[in-house]
Specification:
By secondary structure, this protein is α/β, with parallel strands linked by helices. The protein is 40% helix and 13% strand. The chain has one domain: Glycosidases (TIM Barrel). α5 runs parallel beside α7 and α15 packs parallel to α16.
Length: 493
C-alpha cells in the first residue's frame, strides 16, 4: 500500500496578521498589517499591479492610524481567532493535524518592537494557544516574523534598513524561545524572506517614499542583509534555549520555465531562479553566493556588512528549508506580445499548457515535484512544504453545505506529486501544511472572498457576517488523507 513516510507531519498553515484580529486588545501594538487597506481588483490589469497593492506611504499610515475602522482595514479583525482560538484549534485537530503552522505577532509581545520588557498579556495568549494545540497532540510550527513588523519599527526606525532592528528582533526571539521552550520545537525565522524585494513595507517595514528612487533597490538588499544576520542569530539563540529545536528558513518557491527553448529564454530562466535561490543559498550555506556578491559589485552597491556579521551567518545556518508553492510561471528574454498573469506576489508570462485559478494563478502540480527535486539536489537538507493551496470563491448552498471539489482536486494532485518526489526521487520531506485550512484575509488584496480553507468562516469582504465556522466538503476529505497517511489518494499510483 502506497503511503507517506511514518511520522510525516500533516497539517495547515496560517499567519497571525491574516486571522487573529484583536488589533488593540491584550496590549497589542499596531503592526504594518494594521494599516493595509482593502482592495477589490476587478481586472487582470489591477491584479498585475502587485506593487500598487502593497506599497504604503507615510500619508497612507497617517490616514490609517487616524481611524479605528476595521471595514477598509480588514486585517484588524481577521476572522477573530483571538476570541475563537479554542473552537478553531479543535476544528483543525478534528482533521487529525499533526502540526499547525502559525505565527506570533511581534507587536503583541513588544507593542512598539523596541521595548525592554515584553507584554505579559500577549505572552499569555500564545501560552494558551500552544496549550490548546498540545492538548490535541498537534505540534506548533511557529514563524517568528510573518509580514507584520511593529508599525513603530517602520515609522521611527525605517524598518530593517536600520541595523538597530537586529537587536530588537534578537531580544524578541530570546523572549519567545525561552517562554515557549517546552511547547514549541519547530520554528521558522522570516516568512518568505525573499519577499522584501517585492513588497518591502509588508516584509521589511520599508517606506519607499522616504528614499531616493534610484537608491531604493540597494536599500532593500541592505535590509535583507540585516535580516540574514538576525536569522542566524535567531538560530543560535533558539538552539541555546531549546537544544532539540529545529529552525528553518522559509522561501517563496517561485518556479519558472523558459517560455521557449531559445537560449536567451533559458538564460533568463536561470537568472530568474538565481534571484530566488540567493536568499535560501545564504541561509542554508551560511554565506553569500558569489553570483550575488558579483551583482552588488556590478551595480556599484556598498552593502554594509562586518566581518562579525559574516562569521555569525556562517556559524548558524538553518536546519531545514521550508517554502510556499502555489503555481509556476514562464519567463522570456523579451515578453512583448506575450500574455501576462499573476502569481504569489509576482507577475509573469502565462503558460499556455496549464489552467489558471480565478485570480490568475496557474495550477501546476508537477511544478511542485520539480521544485522539491531542485531544492533537494541543491541543499541536501530536509524540506517542508509549509504553504500550498487554492484561493477560490466558495458558494454556500441553501442547506449550508459547500461543495469545494475544485479545492480537493487541486490539493490531491499536488499531494500525489509530493509522494512521487519522496518515493521516486528520494526527496527528504518532513511534512506538508496547506495554506489557510480555515478561511482568512488574503494577503495582498486583503479580501475575504478569496478563500482557501477546509473550514468556512461567515464573514464577507466588508467584515459583515456571523463569524460562525462550518465544514466544507474538503474537511472530511483531508481528514481521510491524514488518517490513511495519504493512502486514500495513492491507490492508483
Amino acid at each position: 500500500m502506497n503511503q507517506f513516510p511514518e511520522g510525516f507531519l500533516w497539517g495547515g498553515a496560517t499567519a497571525a496578521n491574516q486571522l487573529e484580529g484583536g488589533w488593540k486588545e491584550g496590549g497589542k501594538g499596531p503592526s504594518v498589517s494594521d494599516v493595509a487597506k482593502f482592495t477589490d481588483p476587478k481586472s487582470m490589469k489591477e491584479l498585475l499591479d502587485v506593487h500598487g497593492l502593497t506599497d504604503i506611504t507615510d500619508e497612507d499610515i497617517k490616514e490609517a492610524m487616524a481611524t479605528d475602522d476595521e471595514v477598509y482595514y480588514p486585517k484588524r479583525h481577521g476572522i477573530d481567532f483571538y476570541h475563537h482560538y479554542k473552537e478553531d484549534i479543535k476544528l483543525l485537530a478534528g482533521m487529525g493535524f499533526k502540526v499547525y503552522r502559525m505565527s506570533i505577532a511581534w507587536s503583541r509581545i513588544f507593542p512598539r518592537g523596541d521595548e525592554l520588557e515584553p507584554n505579559e498579556e500577549g505572552l499569555k495568549f500564545y501560552d494558551a494557544v500552544f496549550d490548546e494545540c498540545l492538548k490535541y497532540n498537534m505540534q506548533p510550527l511557529v514563524t517568528m516574523s510573518h509580514y507584520e513588523p511593529p508599525l513603530a519599527i517602520a515609522t521611527e526606525y525605517n524598518g530593517w534598513y536600520n541595523r538597530k532592528v537586529i537587536d530588537f528582533f534578537v531580544h524578541y526571539v530570546d523572549v519567545i524561545t525561552k517562554r515557549y521552550a517546552s511547547k514549541v520545537k519547530y520554528w521558522l525565522t522570516f516568512n518568505e524572506v525573499d519577499s522584501i524585494i517585492r513588497h518591502p513595507f509588508m516584509t521589511g517595514g520599508l517606506i519607499e517614499s522616504r528614499f531616493k528612487k534610484e537608491e531604493f533597490e540597494e536599500v532593500e538588499y541592505q535590509a535583507m542583509h540585516h535580516q540574514f544576520v538576525a536569522s542566524a542569530l535567531a538560530v543560535k539563540i533558539t538552539h541555546e534555549n531549546i537544544p532539540d529545536a529545529k529552525v528553518g528558513c522559509m522561501l517563496t518557491k517561485l518556479t519558472y520555465y523558459p517560455y521557449s527553448c531559445k537560449p536567451e529564454d533559458v538564460l533568463e530562466e536561470r537568472e530568474r531562479m538565481r534571484s530566488i535561490y540567493c536568499y535560501s543559498d545564504t541561509q542554508v550555506f551560511g554565506e553569500y553566493p558569489k553570483y550575488l556578491l558579483t551583482k552588488y559589485k556590478n551595480k556599484g552597491w556598498h552593502i554594509k556588512m562586518t566581518d562579525e556579521d559574516l562569521k555569525i551567518m556562517k556559524a548558524y545556518p538553518v536546519d531545514f528549508i521550508s517554502f510556499s508553492y502555489y503555481s509556476s510561471s514562464c519567463v522570456a528574454h523579451d515578453n512583448n506580445g506575450l500574455e501576462m498573469t499573476t502569481g504569489n506576489t509576482v507577475t509573469a508570462i502565462k503558460n499556455p499548457y496549464i489552467p489558471s485559478s480565478d485570480w490568475g494563478w496557474q495550477i501546476d502540480p508537477i511544478g511542485l515535484r520539480i521544485s522539491l527535486i531542485d531544492l533537494a539536489d541543491r541543499y541536501r537538507k530536509p524540506l517542508f512544504v509549509v504553504e500550498n493551496g487554492l484561493g477560490a470563491k466558495d458558494v454556500v448552498e441553501e442547506d449550508g453545505s459547500i461543495h469545494d471539489d475544485y479545492r480537493i482536486d487541486y490539493l490531491k494532485s499536488h499531494i500525489i506529486q509530493m509522494w512521487h518526489a519522496i518515493h521516486d526521487d528520494g526527496v527528504d520531506l518532513m511534512g506538508y501544511t496547506t495554506w489557510a485550512p480555515i478561511d482568512l484575509i488574503s494577503n495582498s488584496t486583503n479580501q475575504m472572498s478569496k478563500r482557501y480553507g477546509f473550514i468556512y468562516v461567515d464573514v464577507d469582504d466588508y467584515g459583515h457576517g456571523t463569524y460562525q465556522r462550518s465544514k466544507k466538503k474538503s474537511y472530511d476529505w483531508y481528514k481521510e488523507v491524514i488518517e490513511t497517511n495519504g493512502a486514500s489518494i495513492l491507490k492508483d499510483e
